Model the fold of this input.
Amino acid sequence: MRILLVEDEVMLAEAVRDHLLAAGEAVDHTESIHDAEIMIRGTNYDVLLLDLNLPDGHGIDLLRTLRRNGSAMPCIILTAQDQISDRIEGLNAGADDYLVKPFDLNELSARLSAVARRYSGNPNPFVALAGGVEVDLAGRVVMINGAQIDLTSREWALLDQMVRRPGQTLSKRQLEEALYEFGAEIESNTVEVYVSRLRRKLGKDVIKTVRGVGYRVGG
Done:
């Protein structure tokens, strides 16, 4: 997933970012509402991880602005404010979930996956593909006829994007954004390389090429 992390606690932000990058997610980080607004205008994010007490304002105000402008981007609030009234305010402003600091990083990953599944329209974490391939989105496991297939974090990130949108053709640009965070160098043939690797591991019929448009699974 392409994730925007808005968090001004540097050590926490680094821990979250490193954890998610190791899991194959692409993470952009900022410490301010102002920069977050700029980044959201220029990039299609899958999930927003939002702290509330930020140097230039309150995270709830950013969330309300996004929702008033029609944004349906999933949002998980990360905050030290653990009062029930604070949680209610965040959820009423349009948040999808709420994690109170300190939190377990594996729990964060699980909540991210659950929110993404809900927005994809399919809350079931198990997806069957062509050729006996089964994908467990929650467990990050791929099986072929019951045998587990090992994927690298980048291979998983690419497959994850397509599996969450079965039947939908994703452009090369969309897949590139899923693989890399801001500042990362993107080579012109990166997507093609990873698609080729996935086909060798999972079978050539799992990922279909829509010539001149992009790639898709299912449908």
